[in-house]
């Protein structure tokens, strides 16, 4: 460094060192902010009702516009399980799945089809119009809040026919969102494990497996000592073949209990629940990545306006 005194050289080196230090501190601060923000976004609740308004905006982005409606009903589940068993189960499966693959979960939903249990205490059976309109309005409001992919997670045996119809009816009028119905299956390995663990051979409602779900989710609400207070056998009071009629369930299980839950346990419940959770988390991921459903809906809506102009694909 010719032309500079030793003092000037030392000052120059000091300035360079200070600049490097400031630059390093800025980088560290930036990294800290990124880490803090990342942690913040990851800690967003999946529960719609738990979020603040500003956090909700962040949650919609993080969810990539996907929301679950966890659906059940309020009905009798034998003499030993709470009326809200289906609601609790749908919510828990959704919660666990959303922890694996982030999405929003709509608040507890119990407006479903349960006319077959109107004769039992505590049942809430809304009208046909209410059941359909409430779900329709809920989906519209979810969409209005920026979420365009809605997954219905149902755990009530009386809802599938209604929900399949509801999904099909989404094609009646143009809309900017899509509704997906989660349809879980039991893989062979899990089925074998459940078969090996369970003691009973019959079931269908408030039985050993469903009661085991509640033992895993809300053991404090299970009255296990009452599991044998009422019979859960098939009374088979309707002798008709190759025909369907609405009274079929009542003819079999008027006590609204199908199976034997005395051997229900949390371990069995966890095996059954986790298999559904795994499938649902995979569905959430697939729905996020799906780029076909909404464009196909839009194509269909355009063509349905003038079907005589529809081109052969």
Number of domains: 1
* Chain-averaged pLDDT: 92
Outline, from the CA principal axes? globular
Query: What is the CATH fold-level name?
Result: Rossmann fold
Alpha carbon gyration radius: 28 Å
Strand content: 5-15%
CATH architecture: 3-Layer(aba) Sandwich
Poorly predicted regions are 32-41
Q: Count helical runs.
A: 10
What does this structure look like?
By secondary structure, the chain is of the alpha/beta class. The chain has a single domain (48-309), classed as Creatininase (Rossmann fold). 48% of the residues lie in helices and 7% in strands. The protein is built from ten helices and six strands. The protein has helices spanning 6-42, 53-62, 85-100, 128-144, 160-168, 188-197, 208-217, 248-252, 266-289, 293-305, and strands at residues 66-71, 104-105, 149-154, 178-181, 203-205, 258-259. The strands form two sheets. It has a four-stranded parallel sheet with strand order 2-1-3-4, with helices on both faces. Strand 3, helix 5 (160-168) and strand 4 (178-181) form a beta-alpha-beta unit. Helix 7 crosses helix 9 (266-289). The radius of gyration is 28 Å and the shape is globular. 31% of the residues are buried.
């Amino acid at each position: 460094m010719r032309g500079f005194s030793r003092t000037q050289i030392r000052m120059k080196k000091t300035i360079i060192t200070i600049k490097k230090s400031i630059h390093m501190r800025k980088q560290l601060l930036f990294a800290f902010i990124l880490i803090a923000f990342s942690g913040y976004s990851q800690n967003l609740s999946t529960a719609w009702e738990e979020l603040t308004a500003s956090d909700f905006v962040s949650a919609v982005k993080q969810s990539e516009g996907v929301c679950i409606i966890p659906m059940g009903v309020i009905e009798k589940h034998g003499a030993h399980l709470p009326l809200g068993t289906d609601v609790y189960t749908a919510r828990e499966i959704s919660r666990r799945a959303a922890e694996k693959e982030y999405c929003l979960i709509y608040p507890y939903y119990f407006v479903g089809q349960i006319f077959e249990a109107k004769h039992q205490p505590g049942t809430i059976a809304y009208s046909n119009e209410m059941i359909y309109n409430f779900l329709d309005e809920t989906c519209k409001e979810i969409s209005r809040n920026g979420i365009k992919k809605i997954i219905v997670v149902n755990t009530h045996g009386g809802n599938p026919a209604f929900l399949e119809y509801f999904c099909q009816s989404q094609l009646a009028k143009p809309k900017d969102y899509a509704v997906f119905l989660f349809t879980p299956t039991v893989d062979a390995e899990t089925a074998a494990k459940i078969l090996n663990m369970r003691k009973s051979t019959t079931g269908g409602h408030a039985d050993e497996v469903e009661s085991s779900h509640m033992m895993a989710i809300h053991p404090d609400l299970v009255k296990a000592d009452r599991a044998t207070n009422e019979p859960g056998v098939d009374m088979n009071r309707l002798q008709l073949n190759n025909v369907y009629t609405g009274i079929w369930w009542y003819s079999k299980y008027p006590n609204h209990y199908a199976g034997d839950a005395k051997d229900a346990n949390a371990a069995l419940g966890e095996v059954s629940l986790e298999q559904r959770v795994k499938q649902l988390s995979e569905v959430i991921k697939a729905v996020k990545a799906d780029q076909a459903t909404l464009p196909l809906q839009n194509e269909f809506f355009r063509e349905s306006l003038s079907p005589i102009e529809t081109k052969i694909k």
